[in-house]
Write a structure and sequence with these properties.
alpha+beta, Glutaredoxin, four-stranded mixed sheet, about 10% strand
Amino acid sequence: MIRLECFFDCSSPWSYLGVHNLQPMAKRLNVPVTWRPVLVGGVFNKVNSVVYANRANPPVPVKRDWSRKDMQDWARFSGIVINNPPACGHPVNSAMCMRICLVLQDSSDTRMMAFAMAAYRALWKDGRNLGHEEVMRYVCAEVGEDPEPLLAAARTEPVKQKLWDNGEELMTRGGFGVPTIFLNGDDMYWGSDRLPLIEHAIGRIQAGERAPA
């Protein structure tokens, strides 16, 4: 059985692109996806802290400018709006948002992903700060969820620990950012633009080819 896992964080625009585009691809290929909420800031702090230095002082300013164009090209291609930086400023603290994702996931992936996509839009289209509880209430209302029990559950230690554990697992398996997608457990792909490579790899597996060593 072919399976995918996707580690994601709603505070990342590239994660937005990856999650948005992975869903229809997986459906078209009839491949299940296990969604893994993480707090990417915690990952950066441990294994990829150069991200912060590069944001403050881009080593190649022209590449930074090109990257902004590249993101907008991908957003148009994907049919979504990404205002980067968002009106609320960036980075934002997405811990509560990602914990709510975990709480909803206990019920169903469908509810979790509806909330996650609304959170992506709230930040990257509308410029709402995911670190504010009133924004979490707004996002819950957007998808017909009662915010208060979700917020209460998201404050509990088991949910906080689960988010931490997901991030630790991502790093243990070699991940350093989002979106990170694993095909059949150990074939890792990082970045929203790797989806064509994933689809190609799935095609090879379905054709009976062995994965490269």
